[in-house]
From TrEMBL, chain A:
Any Gene Ontology biological process: transmembrane transport
Protein name: Peptide/nickel transport system permease protein
InterPro entries listed in its UniProt record: BPD_transp_1_N, MetI-like, MetI-like_sf
Keyword annotations from UniProtKB, A to Z: Cell membrane, Membrane, Transmembrane, Transmembrane helix, Transport
Signal peptide: none
Compartments, record wording: Cell membrane
Gene Ontology CC: plasma membrane
Record-linked PANTHER family: INNER MEMBRANE ABC TRANSPORTER (PTHR30465), OLIGOPEPTIDE TRANSPORT SYSTEM PERMEASE PROTEIN APPB (PTHR30465:SF0)
Automatic annotation (TrEMBL), chain B:
UniProt-annotated location(s): Cell membrane
Keyword Transferase appears in the UniProt entry: no
TM stretches of this protein: 38-59, 116-141, 153-173, 179-198, 237-264, 284-304
Membrane topology, record value: Multi-pass membrane protein
Lineage: Bacteria, Bacillati, Actinomycetota, Actinomycetes, Propionibacteriales
Organism: Kribbella antiqua
Protein name: Peptide/nickel transport system permease protein
Automatic annotation (TrEMBL), chain C:
Keywords of the record: ATP-binding, Cell membrane, Membrane, Nucleotide-binding, Transport
PROSITE patterns in UniProt: ABC_TRANSPORTER_1, ABC_TRANSPORTER_2
Topology class, membrane: Peripheral membrane protein
One GO CC term on file: plasma membrane
Protein name stated in the entry: Peptide/nickel transport system ATP-binding protein
Provenance organism: Kribbella antiqua
Gene Ontology BP terms: peptide transport
Amino acid sequence: MTRYVIGRLGGVVVILLAVCLFTYLIFFKLSPDPAVMICGKTCTPERIDSIRDVLGLNQPILTQFWEFLQGIFAGRDYGSVHCSAPCLGYSFQTNESVWSMITARLPVSITVAVGAAVLWLLAGVIGGLISAIKQGTWWDRTAMALALGGVSVPNYVLALVLQFVLVVKLQVLPFPSAPAFADNPLLWFESYIMPWTVLAVGYACLYARLTRANVIDTLQENYFRTARAKGLSRSLVLRRHALRPALTPITTIFGMDFAGLLGGALITETVFGLNGIGKMAADSIAKNDQPVIMAVTLLAAFFVVIGNVVVDLVYTTLDPRVRVTSS
Amino acid sequence: MTATPALLEVEEVGTPAPAGGPPTSTRRILTTITKDKGALACVLFIVIVVLMAVAAPLITKLSGWGPYQFDSAAINSDLGGVPHGSLGGISGNHWFGVEPQNGRDLFARIVYGARVSITISLSATLLTGVLGVVLGMLAGFYRGWVDTVISRLMDFLMAFPALIFMIAILSSLPAGNRPVLLVVVISAFGWPYLARVIRGQTMTLANREFVEAARASGAKDVQVVFREILPNLRGSIIVMTTLAIPGYIGTEAGLSFLGVGVSPPTASWGQMISSSVSWYSVDPMFFVIPGTFLFLTVLSLTVLGDKIRSVVDQGEAA
Amino acid sequence: MTADLFVVEDLTVTLPTGRGPVDVVKNVSFTVGRDDTLGIVGESGSGKSMTALAVLGLLPRGAETSGSIRLEGKELLGRSERELQSIRGNAISMVFQDPLSSLNPYYTVGLQIEEMYRAHRGGSRRDARKVAIEALERVHIPDAGRRIDHYPHQFSGGQRQRIMIAMALCCSPSLLIADEPTTALDVTVQAQILELMAELQSTTGTGMIFITHDLAVISSIAKRVLVMCAGDPVEYGTAEQVFSDPHHDYTRTLLDAVPRIDDEVAS
């Protein structure tokens, strides 16, 4: 088992290196003069030159990349500025190390992701379960029709509609500002409830349809019939012989979806003005702040790839048929 | 994250491996759809949108205004560019009203926006389909190092935060041939999801007896792949490509919303929604009309795709 | 003749289909006594499985039944779901065709036997576990004390069917219904399972209904035979009667279809 985990982690490192290298090449090779872009809009030629120096942009690309990698583990000096490990780069536009920018904003993205996840799991799974049990009734048909609708609304459209109706027109909620929970719990809740809802709607609809399909399939399984033939109570039959088999595949999907969200929900954060990783990515792209873009890409990829490994490992504990056999 | 990868990912788990029955006939799909009123309504709407896309120049000639013409008479420059009249200036002259500030005919821009949405999503679906099916079948059929290389490539592409990367690439490249660029970028991140499913199903099918039988009667690899395996994949391919289209429409609209899609003054529904944000307190129709078109188009395609999938599933289960 | 333990009279099952309601079981009648074995034989679609499901109230939604099903004199048809739950697995047990898909892959075999025992007899987990181990030993699963914590996929096909039988008998039912229990197994394993079922029946005195399409199997274990064709009961009598002097053409066709070692081979 440990061999398996080590092997997978090795694969993680390889993929992250590849992502990193690819991203580095794209940004530093694609633009004619990276230093100009990195410096930003208001820039003096002297500053551009010093950036070029400090980042070693005249060196061969692989040397640059190697220095970047070293920086991640050992820290790096950008001229007179020291960026301590893990140094994912330095933004010459905000004059901050990218890592500190990330740590400042990560809590917001995590709050968005966790809140939305709780909402969509509850709504999606319970909704899908009820639909499956009441298959064919008007409840089922309406729920599934709504689910199709929910999947079809682009999340920025929903975000704008919610913001317009709840904040501008009805004035029930303020413009989101994301304070820390400890400072102002009410404002915290009021700020996050809309982004949570917007993100959750799309996923909840998908999960409802998926849960419904899985449960209906499970109800046709032979072992479900056996369970009923054994004379077990209805709740025991549903819980052990329908829910457990039906929901297990959903855990893998959930793991991947959640891991993807940890990298920042770009559109949702931007529309609601929440200062998370996603908004930072959008802003940096608009300003051509390459080091930040690179780091965010790497971070998001990291979550996805690690998420993949975690999900596979968790699945081996859930499904006895896929236990990792020791050699 | 826009709907593309999420939709395809989720549908992938629900897609069963082809069972022993005959491949789903297109005829059965068509008969099921024509009998269902909801599906017919969706088809109708999609036909309208496609007609808009195809016949855009003709339609705008009939409606009287092109998508790039400014009609300063329709807007009230004293009030900052708000359209005259209610509902954003809907009138016999401008059937959907006009855009604030520049007075462009909204109907014409919706029609040309349909053109953008349809061409980009269809092209991306086609490219994704070809890449996904070919690479997936190669990986699943030949296994060995071919499979390793293709699978690692898929893992690599799927690890990327597609949205961030698409935006970053699109914004750092010059304005060039935007639509082509969009199609390439969207497809580059979209094909692994299809390829993964195709690969899995090809592996299952390659072990089936009918493939062995074909080999035993002297068929070469190419023939086996195209005559034995591909027809059995038809159901999955139809389902996944049909469901990819609305996802890609959403992706293109999302990219245009963020300002990295087609470059102005080309009309795009996403870009119109983005522009409408600052106007929605005084001219909500500017938001409602493109938003509704986007929603209904994606909805119709999703409902259709869903119905097709239930036909295919029933066929496989038979 | 042993006292009639189980009586079915004029059982009719109607299922709703796309083309309207269809009678899948038409006026079927038979009896099973204690220590008695009834074989129900017929091809696919003859309604034999539906008959079994009707007995336990496990028909699909929308199915309609009429007639009478009586166990020890008490009517089963029309009972509430709760009453049926106390009968299933307890008074009447059922064993199904495919043992791999009939056992829940997510739980150990021990748990699946224990949950059934505790549902009908109560008791602690420790008591149930003892019962489960005994049940496995009774069907000759070696090393039962350890293997009780294994999952279904860790057993062979024959072993899985034994586990199903063990599970079905753990609450000492009066009647056991076996729906094609050996069809999915190899021939040698088939023989073992049949032997096991005969042995268990002689020690417990359970009445048995054995459903199959395989005449050879019927001939080796059934005392009475019911032949079904497209929902109709076409022949009913003792095994000797049905095999040596069938009344109905269909039975004759079935018997003729069995290849015999002394048949002439076309040259």
